[in-house]
């Protein structure tokens, strides 16, 4: 990290930690999260009974029940396929399988497929020097890169130290990557860095004259019926590559199936089996603490099982079992970065062994599996009607003058930080009735949000945060707290992301308390801050920006920004 980047990173951290003022980003919001429709996938996989593909319905039912029963997993959706046929699919709670989901780093494996297409075309070689792609002639940039190759980018062994956190305050990511200090010799040490994948995206643009999305549209997305894809771009307009892809679960499963089938899709060889064999060959060994996988070409490779993995933080996974032909696709919102989750032990236990070609049909077991799937979804529940518990809140408005309100907004802070799109601060809350349901009116200094709140069954609405548009499922209930104060509990699932916003409106005398929470929230962020406090690079930044680096203090700061409590007074 150079001095100017360190200074900007420090200033941004200071602004986020200062709960008395709205966070001012260094870069303006790009409004890059465009609206994406909720609709079923085109060219869907065939649906078959589990037994017809050698898997017991009872086995799948127990798998779903275990995922749902472990609250630490924050499971959102799951699809299980064998031989390119869907055996089971389920959405948990308010989630919707029609939503295009944010993949985080799972999309790195999609970038690998784009690189493979260029290799197949003969326009790129994995041993090609990065300097030859981006520079003409000799000079200091070439010497600085020390022979870095495309394969070094593919295997996370470039040694470059320009990272995602620094990119939040930079506009020219290519220049900063190519000029960053290298840690050791390229090709030697594994160091996970999403900017390696970004550079692969930039290479696709250099080699083809087309952005990653356009290139893949013709070569993979259109032939496979993959639609409604959105890939966020850097300030210079290049797809981020290492993160930022929205794609619905079934379409992501198609890309996993393509790898499982050696590049063959409906009888057509879309990408060579030779490249995929190279991509699934272990090239680097990440630390054991990251999980039980080695690293190939932007695809994780099982250390002890014949598996491959597209993996994104917080639980976005495409796990393929090469021996049995089983593919498991999941999305979640848990507090993990790589494969530290108990999820991997569960899925290996259920699908890591051998399976017969088929089993005798079991209609009773299949009916119970289908009942379990329905029971996991909040949309299968009966709707509830307004009753007297809502009366204390209805048609009332409250305002706040707390200086801490300047940093509190409706959009989860995780999404604010991802898009440099920070709230201007909440000013008032009101509850009205519309169509027989409560409606929350949440006003910020520069925006007004109206949220229909489903009782019993979530209501889906679009929320526009200064150009970033999200599909949100809103549900709520009227209850009381331990002091018998009336409480309006509201849950907002941002369906395209792992993020959830919880609002608790508590009537306290004539006033109102607002308590906000989000997931991923305090445990995840506090863990990140504590890890940064152990780094000689980031500890000085935390000491100045946050005011301390002790674990208890960092937890206090995380609570301040992620779980605020504000007082509101009634508007008469």
Question: Would you mind describing this structure in some detail?
Answer:
By secondary structure, the chain is α+β, with helices and mostly antiparallel strands. Helices cover 30% and strands 23% of the residues. The protein is built from 18 helices and 23 strands. Helix 2 (57-69) packs parallel to helix 14 and helix 3 (108-121) runs parallel beside helix 9 (194-208). The radius of gyration is 24 Å and the shape is globular. The mean pLDDT is 93.
Structural class: alpha+beta
Question: Which strand-content bin applies to the residues?
Answer: 15-25%
For the largest beta-sheet, the strand count, sense and barrel status come to: 11 strands, mixed
> How many helical elements?
18
Helix content: 25-40%
- Described by the principal axes of the CA atoms, the overall outline is globular
How far the N terminus sits from the C terminus, by CA atoms, comes to 53 Å
How much is the radius of gyration in Å?
A: 24 Å
| Multimer state | single chain
Short description:
This protein has 572 residues and is of the alpha+beta class.
